[in-house]
Amino acid sequence: MNKNSPSIPWIDVIAESASDYARQTLFKDLFHDSMNKNRITESNLTSLSGSYLLLTANKSDIELGFLSDESVLMDLARTILSVSPEVIIPRLDMMDAVNEVINIISGGVKSRVNDQITGGIVLGIPYFLEGDAVQKKIQQGAVETIDFAGMPVTLYVREETQDNL
Question: Where does the Chemotaxis phosphatase CheX-like domain lie (predicted)?
Fold first, then answer.
């Protein structure tokens, strides 16, 4: 494999990392039956919010995203913050919790492929987006919807080489 420009299936790697995190840390039996488990379809991709993180890998920037309907993200944040489903958490706390999720998943991505890339991977800082900004990103990258501990989430990946930046 050419370590200067390896061919890495980023969407598969982030899906594997997310699935491992959900299975190992967010056990499905922790999720209350009242949680929002709506299915994400093409028609409601416009209603997604979520967190993004930029990886720098040799001569490429890879942007990863963890997206879902806001009600699903609120349920996930309640679980991460160890509060009951009835507790109303501040929106900023939800955003912070979801930023931690993409940070952990990105760390899993790094651990899976770091040795395949000359110079390794550098993780960026997570940030939260919603609305039109999410819709524009989705159109520019690859997306895959997965079952994340019983909740539908959409993973996003966009890779750009520094020649194209």
Answer: 64-136
159 within 8 A of 10, measured Cβ to Cβ: yes
One-letter amino acid for residue 148 of the chain: F
Q: What is the DSSP letter of 161?
A: E
Q: Give the amino acid at 73.
A: L
Q: Which pTM does this prediction carry?
A: 0.84
CA pair distance 82, 30, nearest whole angstrom: 10
What are the residue ranges spanned by the domains of the chain? Answer: 34-161
Residue 16 near residue 109 (C-beta atoms within 8 A): no
- Which CATH code for domain 34-161? 3.40.1550.10
Q: What is the pLDDT along the chain (165 residues), one digit of tens a residue?
A: 344 445 899 999 999 999 889 888 875 544 434 333 444 444 466 689 999 999 999 889 999 999 999 999 999 999 889 999 899 999 999 999 999 999 999 999 999 999 999 999 999 999 999 988 888 888 889 999 888 888 889 999 999 987 655
By three-state DSSP, how is residue 64 classified? strand
